[in-house]
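Severity: low
Component: inverse-folding endpoint
Summary: output formatting inconsistent between runs
Steps to reproduce: submit the following structure tokens with default settings.
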């Protein structure tokens, strides 16, 4: 039988190299949500890293993730029309899958042949990944990807580069397909990963390096986890606190604060009910009030003693006597839901920043002993000692906190004497 009259499947594959110039297949990008646009930009950006923006690095797992992230910006009808015109180079299951996609029915990636997926993706990016990213960027305009990101930017007065990083962290958390693409990058140094992020986020290299410094807001406030050597997925990740914020979807500063802290309950006793502490109580309440009125940083009170000795009641009496609004850093409930150990520390720092703009407040941190990291002493009978890295963080916190704070603990073994 003449092969030019009836082709087998393998010979049909060889015809792929002669396919015609494809048509555009994007929907009206102005109608696509900013989150979907940004994900599409990032997807194309990840797979063009290291190529100078001239090519896409395809692969079976990459193809699936890229197609999933590009799908919201594609016009299924136009994509199907191109596929039907070029049916000779595509499998029937691929055509049927695109029909279901056009009709809004279930689209299963496994129905698509891997070579066909590559063909469709090349058609989408036929003008090159650089041109595709520019087309997506023109519709995107780099606004915050969610009201929660906007609330954090406004509350913390973050700059545009820090906002771009927050956007990236939000998308990183919510999109498994993006994480799948980031995971394809090799383990490299922090410097190399920063260079990749500069290209990926299209930001200034010096601005990105500054935003990722330890003393910059995103790391100093415990909003992101940073690794010195990793792949691009693990280089920067949202911290436990930031994931909690993203899950709760806080649209403004008030909702952010309510997630982090709660009002101190009304005091059951007055300072007069603690006669053995009356002199110290008067002195402390006056110091708290003066510190708040004069914007004096670094004012902290430590209350410690065995359970049941009235520490929390005395703290509430101090707040009432000072005339300040008292707030308590939230903790996990009995089911373990809520903020983690590290999340509570980050919540304290973030609440400090937010309350400082309001004034007239004092912040309580109860059960401090649960959040201190310790290591065993050199001998089994010796008490645990605090981690050195935490000592530096705590010293800075106690010296710089703009809102007066009351720390309550049952024991001080995990605390350095300084």
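Observed output (run 2 of 3):
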């Amino acid at each position: 039988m003449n092969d030019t009259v009836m082709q087998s499947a393998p010979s049909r594959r060889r015809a792929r190299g002669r396919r015609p110039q494809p048509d555009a297949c994007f929907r009206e990008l102005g109608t696509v949500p900013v989150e979907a646009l940004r994900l599409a930009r990032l997807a194309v950006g990840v797979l063009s890293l290291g190529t100078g923006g001239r090519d896409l690095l395809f692969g079976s797992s990459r193809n699936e993730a890229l197609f999933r992230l590009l799908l919201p910006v594609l016009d299924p009808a136009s994509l199907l029309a191109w596929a039907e015109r070029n049916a000779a180079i595509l499998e029937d299951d691929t055509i049927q899958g695109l029909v279901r996609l056009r009709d809004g029915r279930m689209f299963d990636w496994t129905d698509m042949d891997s070579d066909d997926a590559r063909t469709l993706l090349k058609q989408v990016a036929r003008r090159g990944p650089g041109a595709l990213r520019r087309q997506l960027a023109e519709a995107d305009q780099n606004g915050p990807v969610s009201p929660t990101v906007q609330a954090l930017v406004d509350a913390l007065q973050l700059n545009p580069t820090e906002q771009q990083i927050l956007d990236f962290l939000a998308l990183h958390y919510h999109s498994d397909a993006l994480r799948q693409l980031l995971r394809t990058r090799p383990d490299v140094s922090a410097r190399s990963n920063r260079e990749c992020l500069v290209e990926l986020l299209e930001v200034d290299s010096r601005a990105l390096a500054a935003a990722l410094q330890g003393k910059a807001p995103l790391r100093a406030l415990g909003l992101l986890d940073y690794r010195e050597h990793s792949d691009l997925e693990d280089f920067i990740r949202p911290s436990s606190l930031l994931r909690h914020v993203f899950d709760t979807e806080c649209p403004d500063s008030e909702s952010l604060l309510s997630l982090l802290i709660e009002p101190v309950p009304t005091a059951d006793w007055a300072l007069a009910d603690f006669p053995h502490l009356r002199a110290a109580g008067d002195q402390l309440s006056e110091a708290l009030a003066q510190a708040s009125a004069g914007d004096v940083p670094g004012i902290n009170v430590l209350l410690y003693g065995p359970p049941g000795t009235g520490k929390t009641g005395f703290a509430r009496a101090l707040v009432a006597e000072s005339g300040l609004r008292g707030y308590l850093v939230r903790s996990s409930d009995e089911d373990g839901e809520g903020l983690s150990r590290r999340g509570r520390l980050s919540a304290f720092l973030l609440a400090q920043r937010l309350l400082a703009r309001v004034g007239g407040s004092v912040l309580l941190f109860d059960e401090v002993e649960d959040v201190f990291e310790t290591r065993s002493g050199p001998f089994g009978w010796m008490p645990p000692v605090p981690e050195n890295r935490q000592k530096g963080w705590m010293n800075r916190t106690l010296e710089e906190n703009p809102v007066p704070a009351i720390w309550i603990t049952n024991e001080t073994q995990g605390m350095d004497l300084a």
